[in-house]
Write a structure and sequence with these properties.
- This protein is α+β, with helices and mostly antiparallel strands.
- It is built from 8 helices and 4 strands, in the order ααβαβααββααα.
- The longest helix is centred in the first third of the chain and has 9 residues.
- The two termini are about 40 Å apart.
Length: about 170
């Protein structure tokens, strides 16, 4: 009820945590009112089987503009990029399905006896082909290229706690 009251309040911007995305999509369904969505830490949407990814995928066609922010776009390899880019372009650049992405950019590793899941490795040069495919909608910036920080200064300030605070 508290969430619904917050959504009903007038405003131009609403902020929710990623765990509430499935709830929000389920609440609005075909009445999705948000024309723009900004995903901070978009790697939390890298798993195409996750509830949050599948929920957002349901309303993606109703979103005019999607912005994703992350410091680590592919923490476990290039396969982490598929779902994130799919939310940006609906599968236009890296394929409509994870399977089509894997066919184009990965090689299936040999399964070990009794192994119930498959693993994939990027093909040689896949990272360059992927970055080329998404370069018109993605920007990758390195801190050392754009950020100049002053020298580190350490300032030690001793704090004395009374007996109650120490407990």
């Amino acid at each position: 009820q508290k969430r619904i009251r917050a959504l009903d309040a007038p405003g131009d911007l609403w902020v929710i945590n990623r765990e509430n995305v499935p709830w929000l999509v389920d609440y609005y369904r075909n009445r999705w009112p948000f024309d723009m969505v900004v995903l901070d830490e978009s790697t939390s949407f890298k798993n195409a089987r996750s509830k949050r990814f599948r929920a957002l995928k349901l309303v993606r066609s109703r979103i005019t503009r999607m912005v994703e922010l992350t410091g680590t776009p592919a923490p476990n390899g290039v396969e982490d990029l598929w779902a994130q880019v799919y939310l940006l372009d609906g599968g236009e650049r890296l394929g409509k399905t994870l399977s089509s992405f894997r066919e184009a950019y990965c090689t299936q590793d040999y399964a070990h006896p009794g192994q119930q899941y498959r693993t994939y490795s990027p093909q040689r040069g896949a990272d360059k082909r992927i970055w080329s495919a998404v370069s018109d909608i993605c920007v990758s910036m390195k801190a050392e290229d754009y950020l100049t920080l002053p020298p580190y200064i350490e300032d030690v300030v001793p704090v004395v706690l009374d007996a109650r605070a120490q407990r």
